[in-house]
């Protein structure tokens, strides 16, 4: 299936969609460093990336009509206008690009679209603007109508090693899906399954060659663990992926392949880092600081250090041969803005199955 993508960044969304079977006709990104990261990996012949037709352009200057008939329009419009960590300018922020996303849908008239953003977009303060976005995407132009769903998702529920809460706005063209409502994708991973394998069966510790510590759960999880032990009903699906899972086999920083120690990490009130045996806190771009210690880990001995670029790339689901040629700060900015590959693959796969089922005439669950 053919797709076009806006606001590609360093390529997390594009990677997930490529893996699930979408062929990109065009990827567009304005940030020079992010584009150079993608091109650097094209030179390294990284799978999928080597075939991406990426251009460094302003989306406002592109005529999308040349891609009319593509199956999917995707992208992650800049989140800063709506981010809790930003200035909350919303549609008054010059970085608000939702009008361009709507224009792309109007000009391409794809069978479907997928847009990802921060969950701050669903805050009460932006309710009116979110309504206008949904309205614009529902009827982006004369004679065009889409069935639109606003999905609040946690990337950890779809296999990413981060508790990354995001909003996905998905749409299916009415003549593709008819009047059938979009059935939201079903999570594949769960917190309860992780707690089961950690504190009921001990399987998690066995896999990592660690002593079984069946009573070390966080106070916030105590009620859930007690319920699981009392009911002894094994949760279905897969467990949440932890930091320890994601970084398995990587070892301490060795100075190679972006796995370079970054000094300066420290703990203070509210700035505590990510424990190894949970999914990480959501990586942050850091434009307004990283107040919760999101970009550092808490090691087994209680000490902290910053994630290396390689570790952050793993937490975002990028392969180990995907390289970042810029500084730690710039690379972490790109990674903090990226869509986790696992989330992109799960949501993209959900949409791919919808479009592949009976010619896309029925919206099905994942």
From TrEMBL:
<protein>
    <recommendedName>
        <fullName>Cytosine-specific methyltransferase</fullName>
        <ecNumber>2.1.1.37</ecNumber>
    </recommendedName>
</protein>
<feature type="active site">
    <location>
        <position position="79"/>
    </location>
</feature>
<dbReference type="InterPro" id="IPR029063">
    <property type="entry name" value="SAM-dependent_MTases_sf"/>
</dbReference>
<keyword id="KW-0808">Transferase</keyword>
<keyword id="KW-0489">Methyltransferase</keyword>
<keyword id="KW-0949">S-adenosyl-L-methionine</keyword>
<dbReference type="InterPro" id="IPR031303">
    <property type="entry name" value="C5_meth_CS"/>
</dbReference>
<comment type="similarity">
    <text>Belongs to the class I-like SAM-binding methyltransferase superfamily. C5-methyltransferase family.</text>
</comment>
<keyword id="KW-0680">Restriction system</keyword>
<dbReference type="InterPro" id="IPR018117">
    <property type="entry name" value="C5_DNA_meth_AS"/>
</dbReference>
<dbReference type="InterPro" id="IPR001525">
    <property type="entry name" value="C5_MeTfrase"/>
</dbReference>
<dbReference type="GO" id="GO:0003886">
    <property type="term" value="F:DNA (cytosine-5-)-methyltransferase activity"/>
</dbReference>
<dbReference type="InterPro" id="IPR050390">
    <property type="entry name" value="C5-Methyltransferase"/>
</dbReference>
<dbReference type="Pfam" id="PF00145">
    <property type="entry name" value="DNA_methylase"/>
</dbReference>
<dbReference type="GO" id="GO:0032259">
    <property type="term" value="P:methylation"/>
</dbReference>
């Amino acid at each position: 299936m053919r797709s076009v993508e806006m606001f590609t960044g360093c390529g997390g969304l594009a990677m997930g969609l490529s893996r699930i079977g979408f062929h990109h006709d065009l990827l567009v990104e304005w940030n020079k460093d992010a584009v150079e990261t993608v091109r650097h990996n094209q030179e390294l012949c990284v799978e999928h990336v080597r075939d991406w037709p990426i251009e460094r352009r302003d989306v406002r200057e592109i005529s999308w009509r040349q891609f009319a008939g593509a199956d999917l329009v995707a992208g992650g419009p800049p989140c800063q206008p709506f981010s809790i960590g930003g200035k909350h300018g919303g549609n008054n922020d010059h970085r608000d690009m939702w009008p361009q996303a709507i224009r792309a849908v109007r000009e391409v008239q794809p069978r479907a679209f997928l847009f990802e953003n921060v969950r701050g977009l669903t805050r009460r303060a932006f309710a009116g603007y979110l309504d206008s976005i949904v309205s614009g995407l529902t009827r982006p132009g004369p004679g065009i109508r889409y069935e639109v769903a606003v999905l609040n998702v946690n990337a950890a529920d779809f296999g990413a090693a981060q508790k990354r809460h995001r909003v996905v706005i998905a749409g299916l063209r009415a003549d593709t899906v008819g009047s059938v409502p979009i059935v939201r994708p079903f999570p594949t991973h769960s917190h309860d399954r992780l707690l089961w394998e950690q504190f009921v069966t001990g399987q998690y510790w066995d896999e990592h060659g660690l002593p079984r510590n069946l009573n070390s759960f966080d106070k916030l999880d105590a009620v859930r663990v007690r319920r699981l032990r009392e009911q002894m009903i094994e949760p279905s699906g897969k467990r949440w992926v932890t930091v320890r899972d994601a970084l398995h086999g990587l070892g301490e920083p060795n100075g190679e392949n972006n796995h370079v120690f970054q000094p300066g990490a420290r703990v203070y009130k509210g700035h505590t880092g990510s424990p190894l045996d949970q999914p990480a806190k959501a990586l942050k771009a850091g434009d307004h600081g990283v107040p919760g210690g999101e970009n550092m880990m808490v090691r087994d001995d209680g000490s902290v250090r910053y994630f290396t670029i390689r570790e952050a790339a793993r937490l975002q689901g990028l392969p180990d041969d995907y390289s970042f040629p810029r500084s730690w700060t710039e690379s972490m900015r790109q990674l903090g803005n990226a869509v986790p590959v696992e989330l992109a693959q799960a949501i993209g796969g959900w949409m791919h199955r919808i479009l592949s089922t009976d010619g896309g005439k029925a919206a099905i669950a994942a």
